[in-house]
Amino acid sequence: DSYLAAIDAANPALNAYVAVTHDKARDMARASDARLAEGQGGALEGIPLGIKDLFATEGVHTQACSHVLDGFKPRYESTVSANLWADGAVMLGKLNMDEFAMGSSNETSYYGPVINPWRAESSNRQLVPGGSSGGSAAAVSAFLCSGATATDTGGSIRQPAAFTGTVGIKPTYGRCSRWGIAAFASSLDQAGPIARDVRDAAILLKSMASVDKKDTTSVDRPVPDYEAAIGRSLKGMKIGIPREYRVDGTPQEIEDLWRKGIDWLREAGAEIVDISLPHTKYALPAYYIVAPAEASSNLARYDGVRYGLRVPGKDIVDMYEKTRAAGFGREVKRRVMIGTYVLSAGYYDAYYLQAQKVRTLIKKDFEDVFAAGVDAILTPATPSAAFGIADEEMNADPVKMYLNDIFTVTVNMAGLPGIAVPGGLDANGLPLGLQLIGRPFDEETLFQTAHVIE
Ligand code: GLN
After folding, report:
1. How close is the Cα of 409 to the center of ligand 1, in Å?
2. CB of 99 closer than 6 angstroms to any ligand 1 atom
3. Of 278, 281, 295, 443, most Cβ neighbours within 10 A?
């Protein structure tokens, strides 16, 4: 009840939730109380969570914050959310996000932007919470849920976590089932939690992760007790500092944050080593070929026949065109057009195939570094603190917006786990995040190391 009251009071200003499931939350909480009274109870018994609108929730608003899914209420539950309910968690509602998870500011949502609960000390300007999991990050940051689900295709868990002073982990590709999560770029998409601290993130990820027959890319490996990794010593651990992440134009405060992170880990007993990831500079351009290519294919299913919106036309082709024209926003249309172009005959080899080759090289860069004994890699999570809503530069030039992902996309391209953890405040009192990148399925090292920083 106190979470629901907090949402009702704060959500009109923050727009973090697009649907609040008051009745369902109370029913689930009562069922949880009953289980506890019986002496039963799971790992998340009674814990109130928010769910990103990308996850299918049975009988509840699920629109990926797009108009094209108008009125869609699935008859099934995503595996990740089902895992959380099975452990006793309580659903508070569905969280705002960039349309189909395409964006870095949560301004492409059909439901309007999310407002970051943080403000700079020097101005009262409204700031973005980052994206695409902006609703998840803002809701956790503003105490409107105790944790949230999120997804990360190129940074959408880690960048909003960094912008809101929260912790977000994108686990290894295959750690969580993608079943019931609206697909953006299937070879990059992964679910993970946004939480108030590293321990909460560890507890939530343990519940979310599972192998699933309904997602053949989910991996059959035991899920470790991530929480047990917290508090372990860093002695003997090797942390890599990639020189290619020192990009021109990185603000001094980001450099300073990185330097502080290095000092903290060294003081905690880790050995700091310089490393090279030579193909880093190709990651962003390759990502913005691969992700739109997969998106253009995945979004073909929104045709006015199967789900959501239908705008009648004079024949079926006219109906498709009118439905998609009215249903998708500008950024989604841009991705579909780029993706269709790079996959088309004559351009496939020059763009898509080339990007796939680059992806292999990026993956190999990381493999080489880990083979040389590096346990985790420390970088900034984002090239800046949260920026203003309707930032003119950012919105006039989509490429400027895409640069937000410069430190995060390599991790998705290589399928690795990455965590964003608060590293302190900038001169304006705004949160900044550090990122740790780990070996495949070694989320434990990330929790262990991030806990030293938080
Ligand atoms: N900002 C990136 C994009 O727009 C990443 C989004 C994501 O991780 N879902 O594609």
Report:
1. 8
2. no
3. 443
Token pair for 292: 């739109």
Residues 6+ away with beta carbon under 8 Å from 154: 185, 188, 287, 291, 405, 408, 409, 412
Cβ neighbours of residue 213 closer than 8 Å, sequence gap 6 or more: none
Which tokens is 177 given?
Answer: 């089932």
Residue 247 is predicted with a pLDDT of 81
List Cβ neighbours of 20 (8 Å cut-off, separation of 6 or more). 4, 7, 8, 11, 92, 93
Q: Return the sign of the alpha-carbon dihedral for residues 166, 170, 171, 177.
A: positive
pTM exceeds 0.90:
yes
By annotation, the residues acting in catalysis are: 52, 132, 156
Could you say which residues of the chain have pLDDT below 70? none
Q: Any residues with CB less than 8 A from the CB of 252 and at least 6 apart, and which?
A: none
CB atoms within 10 A of CB 278: 14
DSSP-assigned beta bridge partners for residue 436: 378, 419
- Which residues are bridge partners to 419 per DSSP? 169, 436
Ligand 1 contact, 188 CB (< 6 A): no
How confident is the model over 341-388, as pLDDT tens digits? 999 999 999 999 999 999 999 999 999 999 999 999 999 999 999 999
With a 6 A CB cut-off, is 107 part of the ligand 1 pocket? Answer: no
Nearest CA to ligand 1 atom 5: 154
Q: Write out the two tokens for 268.
A: 């905690």
* All domains in the chain, ordered by first residue: 2-229 (3.90.1300.10)
Q: With a 6 A CB cut-off, is 105 part of the ligand 1 pocket?
A: no
CA distances, 349 to each of 279, 300, 360 (Å): 20, 22, 15
Question: Exposed/middle/buried for 13, CB within 10 Å: 0-12, 13-18, 19+?
Answer: exposed
Strands 90-95 and 48-52: parallel
Neighbours of 447 (CB within 10 A): 29
DSSP 181: B
Q: Per-residue DSSP letters for 369-415?
A: HHHTT--EEEEES-SSS--BTT-HHHHH-HHHHHGGGTTTHHHHHHT
Angle between helices 252-267 and 443-453 (to 10 degrees): 100
Q: What's the number of CA atoms in the CB half-sphere (13 Å) around residue 249?
A: 7
